[in-house]
Write a structure and sequence with these properties.
This protein is α+β, with helices and mostly antiparallel strands. Helix content is 33%, strand content 37%. The protein is built from 1 helix and 4 strands. It is globular, with a radius of gyration of 13 Å.
Length: 63
């Protein structure tokens, strides 16, 4: 899942594989194995909540 937060920040999350935080400073890739338990909970929750929002509004986005 790739989420564009704003004009300067994006987050790519592949649960169980990696997280890539992209901003003005560059890209910061994190292997899932390198993350702390708190970070895993954070990124997993973020991914789940983005998916819930997407599902809620998906029909309205059809063009």
């Amino acid at each position: 899942m790739m989420v564009k937060i704003n004009a300067k920040e994006s987050i790519e999350i592949v649960t169980g594989v990696f997280v890539n935080v992209i901003n003005e400073s560059g890209s910061k890739y994190h292997s899932w194995d390198e993350l702390t338990e708190a970070q895993i909970e954070c990124f997993s929750g973020m991914s789940r909540e983005f998916q819930e929002v997407y599902e809620k509004y998906k029909e309205g986005m059809a063009v």
